[in-house]
């Protein structure tokens, strides 16, 4: 089920974007909205929202990957606490 949701959401957006803009479009949304030559293609508020959503996505990814490390440390520390009680 999870892979079907990923397939439907990400790949459908990728295929429709490729059909709409061709393969010459840039993959970085900030480079698309803020070209080096010429004015920006979006208002400042939209660019601010894009930056906020990118930071939220990075924060969520960090939380997901840090959960494994926290779980390993928690198991290690809890095993130390059990061994301390066995020694006393």
From TrEMBL:
Transmembrane segments: 44-68
Keyword Transmembrane: yes
Domain of life: Eukaryota
Keywords: Membrane, Transmembrane, Transmembrane helix
Name listed for the protein in its UniProt record: Amino acid transporter transmembrane domain-containing protein
Lineage: Eukaryota, Viridiplantae, Streptophyta, Embryophyta, Tracheophyta
């Amino acid at each position: 089920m999870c892979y079907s949701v990923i397939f439907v959401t990400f790949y459908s957006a990728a295929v429709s974007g490729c059909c709409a803009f061709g393969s010459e479009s840039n993959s970085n949304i900030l480079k698309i909205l803020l070209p080096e030559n010429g004015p920006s293609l979006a208002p400042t508020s939209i660019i601010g929202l894009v930056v906020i959503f990118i930071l939220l996505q990075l924060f969520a990814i960090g939380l997901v990957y840090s959960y494994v490390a926290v779980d390993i440390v928690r198991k290690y520390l809890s095993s130390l606490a059990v061994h301390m009680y066995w020694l006393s």
